[in-house]
Amino acid sequence: MIPSLLHAPPVREPCDEVLEPEGLTVPSSICVAGRMYIVVDPPLSPELVEAAKRYVVWTPSPPGGTAEDILDDFLAFIRRDRGLAQAAREAGRLLGRLLYRYYFSLGVLEPAMADDEVSDMYVSSSPIHVEPVGGLDEYWRALERTRLAQPSRLHVFRGGVDYPTNVAFSPLELPYLVRYVARRAGKDVTVANPLLEGTINWPRPYRVEGWLYGDVGNEALHMRRVGRPVSLCQLADQYGVDAVAALAALYHDRRPLIVLGPMGSGKTTLAAGLLYATPPNTKVVIIEDVDELRLPAAVGRVAKVTVRGWDPGEVATAVRTALRMGQPGATNVAIAEVRARDELVLLLNMFRTGHGGLSTAHAGSVADFVDRLRVWDVDPWLLRGLALPVIGVDGGARSIVEVGVVRVEGRDWWVEQVDLREIPDPTTYAYMRRVLETYRGHGPDSCAEEVQAALEARQRRSKRA
Asked: Fewer CB in a 10 Å sphere around the end CB: N or C, the chain?
């Protein structure tokens, strides 16, 4: 029951750039005109579009599994209007594909989701303002009229620029929109459970968050694209061989490591790349709520524990389960993000019991995270030697802007700013550096195979010695 999702309204603007995403259900295109991002659907007569919108309102579920089945049912729906039925037959396959896109894909959201340059999409509207004229009852009536007339517009974040689009939804459509996207993510939002959190994997993987009661002036739906896997070798191009080799050596030697950075800085991407340095014959258990830490098969045995809703109690259970899924000293645990004290204490305890692993946390600087550690009152013994690299973003370029290491003396502890190259074992660091210089820039599969082969060769040599 979201007719606005069926067909993008036409906008006549001169295009600065025309995009034609691949793999779409309908041959749509994108027109970037100034600061406007316009979804261009194939043209249909206004009368036919309105009839199709009435059809999807009266037919909430698809009558069949193919575009032809849906088109036949639509023709039966409009059979009394012979002129309109004739126009629908002439539109034929195109109209059937539009209806199919609505029922089985993501409607007019699909072209923007298929754009490789789009990183975020959200549905929001500007706050409304009504002059307080007359009595209170008159004010509330005016406010309600304005609210119902205020559309909620789809925005896309592309190339670092926030673009409004020509796709808008009425306030009455917003709850249905959240439920519509929730179904595509395999979720169910209700009055009792109004929050949406999940993943949509087509046409590109997106992480989705929504709020059933999103309204005017609020964000009802946000979709963030899950980046393509970046290999350890490709990270060397982004951050430099020295920085990546040092971090990979820390992870390989099972040193405590938490990657810090602001939202969208690439913490998860960096953490996933570091997992390529997993020691041979080591099992990796990944704990996350959304499928983001993806590894090639060459890395070895990988098991995933999915925590829906990221409840701290469930995370604790997941960590205990993960530690039972392998042998001591042969299991690394990667927690996608630590968000609460209990999760951090479990992670640090894991480091102290012979297991390796890593995690990430939201923090703009080492000092910000240290303040959080002091508020959480974490035992200094657990913090000893914890490495805290911070990712910074400047004009789209990412780098390690600072690194802190926790030092402990008795019950006192502090964080010392250090050169990242000074933290890992010199021998491991030098070996990782040689490997990355050799295979720098290789893609996920090739990098995983080459790095694992090099680590296995090093392990065999150390055993013979």
From this structure: C
